[in-house]
Amino acid sequence: VDPTGYLGAAFSRAQNHPFHYRKNMLFNLRILLNKAALRNGHSFAVRNYRCGQPLQNKVQLKGRDLLTLKNFTGEEIKYMLWLSADLKYRIKQKGEYLPLLQGKSLGMIFEKRSTRTRLSTET
Which family does it belong to (predicted)? Predict the structure, then answer.
């Protein structure tokens, strides 16, 4: 998923910083995923470059629900982030719309009523 090791190194460095830095680090995950590090310490953007698809045989997500990240390993989370970035790239850049959810139904459960959820459930 991260052949350069940049992502893991960045999170390792974040552990030595105050909490607010680590919190902001999570919001900068997109930036981290779009950079690659060179051995000489320089980095370059890889936004337009595609890495090979990660090994899917290690990550089995079929039949599992995403209720909390605590139920997933680091490899599984990295794979989900890679997959979502790949799907976004295909839709926005290439105009590909894959029939992944064709014939499927989505159910939404709301714990508390709010204006937005009330309008969506009453229509």
Answer: Belongs to the aspartate/ornithine carbamoyltransferase superfamily. OTCase family.
Does the pLDDT of residue 108 top 60, yes or no? yes
- pTM of this prediction exceeds 0.90: no
Closest CA to 12 of 41, 34, 32: 32
CB 91 within 8 A of CB 97: yes
Kindly write down the DSSP assignment for every residue of 2-64, as one continuous string: -TT-HHHHHHHHHTTS-HHHHHHHHHTHHHHHTEEE-TTS-EEE-TT--PPPPPTTS---TT-
Q: Which of 72, 70, 84, 63 is nearest to 1 (CA)?
A: 84
